[in-house]
Amino acid sequence: DQNPDSKQKYEKLILAVRAVSGIQVLPNDLNKINFLVTSSDACNKTTAYNVGINLRPDPQSKDDKQAQPTKLKLVKNHSSNLESNLLNLPISTKETMSAVRTLTQEEPLLKLLGNIKKFHTIDNSVLFGLLEQLMNSKQLANHFVAHPQFKEYVMRLHQLTTMYNITVLLVPSKQSLADVCTRSNKPKDKGTATCKQIRGRPPCEICP
């Protein structure tokens, strides 16, 4: 407050950074948030997730009074490489780990938003089927051999989605928000070879 000129320049810098990065900041009034969407994904060597929000229409805005398509504003982008001991796991296991990591890391935000609607999108039908099984029977079979803790990861994901009242949605890979963090349209050194592990996706430059 003692340096209004510096304060103004700093605020302009913050606005410029936000405009360039496309990252949306949570509004001070959380009641303006209509719903929250998290999305997780994984490929051979990478896991990633996104966090987006949809804001309620501004009653004072003329544009918002007209029918508008639902818009998501990106709040967070996260991507990291898998540990070397996890590289050979089946893709379903990696996607389950990615989903659990997403909701675990975003627990403070999930708690903050309280009763605001929350959705989590995945593009793995096996994982979605296991979550449906848990929803119906509250237990899983003991035949998981992909990873010693795979069953625990699925149970933990079910626990998190139940605890924070998160609706899990199965979406096509091309509509997964986090898919762009684990994929590239043009592989650098792989020519036109596509990912052999997951079909129907853009070419992957980091898959072996």
User: How are the strands of the largest sheet arranged?
Assistant: 3-2-1-4-5
Distance linking N and C termini: 55 Å
Q: List the secondary-structure elements in sequence, H or E.
A: HEEHEHHEHHEH
Number of helices: 7
Q: What assembly state would you assign to the polypeptide chains in this entry?
A: single chain
- From the spread of the alpha carbons, the general shape counts as globular
Strand content: 15-25%
Main beta sheet strand tally, sense and closure = 5 strands, mixed
Instruction: Please state the CA-atom Rg, rounded to the nearest Å.
Output: 20 Å
**What structural class do the secondary elements suggest?**
alpha/beta
What is the helix fraction of residues, given as a range? 25-40%
Number of strands: 5
Detail the poorly predicted runs. Answer: 190-201
- Overall mean pLDDT stands at 78
Summarize the structure.
The protein has 208 residues and is α/β, with parallel strands linked by helices. 36% of the residues lie in helices and 19% in strands.
Give a structural overview:
The chain is an alpha/beta fold and 208 residues long. It contains seven helices and five strands. The protein has helices at residues 4-21, 62-65, 91-105, 107-113, 125-137, 150-163, 179-182; strands at 33-42, 46-55, 73-81, 117-122, 166-170. A five-stranded mixed sheet has the order 3-2-1-4-5. Helix 3 (91-105) packs parallel to helix 6 and helix 5 (125-137) packs across helix 6 (150-163). It starts with a helix and ends in a 26-residue tail after the last helix.
